Amino acid sequence: MKTNNVKFIRLRRNITIDRLVEMTGIPKTTLHRIENGGSPKVLDKYRDMLATALNCAPQDLDASEIEEGVPVGGEVKFK
User: Fold this and answer.
1) Looking at residues 31-58, what average pLDDT do you find?
2) Which of 14, 26, 38, 57 could bridge 33 with an S-S bond, Cβ 3.0-4.6 Å?
């Protein structure tokens, strides 16, 4: 069974949805739809772009189990 991991990976990398919009150019409403398990066709359309932005393998975005190799690190925010 496939699971949508986009939000999980995004949060592990400390990337806001607004920052992901800037990085990918994908509309915010579409990203919300993807993260909330919308149509798998929408995820497939943007899979490579999201994987590049989130620094993960494309198959990690909907893998049933995420490997330990998916790093926690990502963008660091400074105040």
Assistant:
1) 92
2) 38
